[in-house]
Amino acid sequence: MSPGGEITREARPESLAGLLGFLDTAIAGAALDAATASDVRLAAEEVCTNVIAHAYPDGRRGTVTLRFRREAGAVVVTVEDTGIPFDPAAAPAPRLGDDWEHRALGGLGWHLVRHVMDEVRHEPLPGGGNRVTLIRRSR
Question: Which of 11, 15, 62, 93 is deepest in the core (most CB within 10 A)?
Fold first, then answer.
């Protein structure tokens, strides 16, 4: 296992830049090809954004932890929170056949995450919270 690490920040919109800065540095250190790097960043950004927007409703405060590791043949990114339980498998599938003028805003995030990653795993954490593991195999 080579480049890796983790960062924990308060789950607030202003924390996103720091989380993504950490991820960009980790991706650069892992020497990923451009397509893989872009896909990993897109998926991790979407998951972190969802945690920030939805895991802590009604003004609750909490954290988001982002982990990155490079394994033989794969990149693994983990996003954890201590917020309300949420299983991305329960997210409704987007209605891709609808004209864009008639499609509701949002709803494409988890579709994109599943599309660009080879595996997306969710598990509830003991004591509350969620862990989403994103795996992208080398191609």
Answer: 11
- What's the rounded Cα separation, in Å, for the pair 110 and 88? 7
Q: Which residues, other chains included, contact 108 with Cβ-Cβ below 8 Å and sequence gap of 6+?
A: 94
Total domain count for the chain?
A: 1
pLDDT in tens, the chain (139 residues): 446 799 999 999 999 999 999 999 999 999 999 999 999 999 999 999 999 999 999 889 999 999 999 998 999 999 999 999 988 777 766 665 555 555 454 557 888 999 999 999 999 999 889 999 999 998 7
Report whether 45 contacts 27 (CB < 8 A).
no
Domain of residue 10 covers 4-137
| CATH classification of the domain holding 72 | 3.30.565.10
Give the H or E element holding residue 109.
helix 109-116
Which DSSP string corresponds to 20-55?
HHHHHHHHHHTT--HHHHHHHHHHHHHHHHHIIIII
Q: Is 132 exposed, middle or buried (0-12, 13-18, 19+ CB in 10 A)?
A: buried
